[in-house]
């Protein structure tokens, strides 16, 4: 058996490291998060008291969204966390939340299945919910 030459060994190591990197960074492949509790990017958002102007948004979030997205948007076994870097404004703008509530959305980051449209919620409700979610995200240091 002939020992590996240095260039062949280096190529093998580089290919192996690249493969591990790409597998570990997958957000939409087999390594997508299925449990929000295991996500290292969810940060605590309870540092400051909720401003009074966001209380209606919190109440509407609790009524329409928390069953799947969890208390304070931290996620559940039924839906992803919204207090997560994937949902920061540069990746999911406010209009994406409006569209998801009005039309539903096909699963594309997580393995929770498709999100149905939310009956009974109007655009003004969603705007208040978004303001609450964005506040939680800021408190968590997401943006």
Task: Classify the secondary structure makeup into a structural class.
Answer: mainly alpha
Highest-level CATH class:
Mainly Alpha
The beta-strand count equals 0
Measure the end-to-end span: 55 Å
Low-confidence stretches: 16-45
Helix content: 40-55%
Major β-sheet, in short?
A: none
Report the β-strand fraction as a percent range: under 5%
CATH architecture: Orthogonal Bundle
Oligomer: single chain
Shape: globular
Number of domains as seen in the coordinates: 1
Please tell me about this protein's structure.
There is one protein chain. With 143 residues, this protein is mainly α. The protein has one domain: Cytochrome c-like domain (Cytochrome Bc1 Complex, Chain D, domain 2). 42% of the residues lie in helices and 0% in strands. The protein has five helices and no strands. Helix 2 crosses helix 5 and helix 4 packs across helix 5. The protein is globular.
Sum up the structure in keywords.
mainly alpha; Cytochrome Bc1 Complex, Chain D, domain 2; 5 helices
What is shown here, in short?
By secondary structure, this protein is mainly alpha-helical.
Could you outline the blueprint of secondary structure elements for this entry?
Layout: H1 6-24, H2 55-64, H3 66-69, H4 94-103, H5 123-139
Helix pairs in contact: 2-5, 4-5
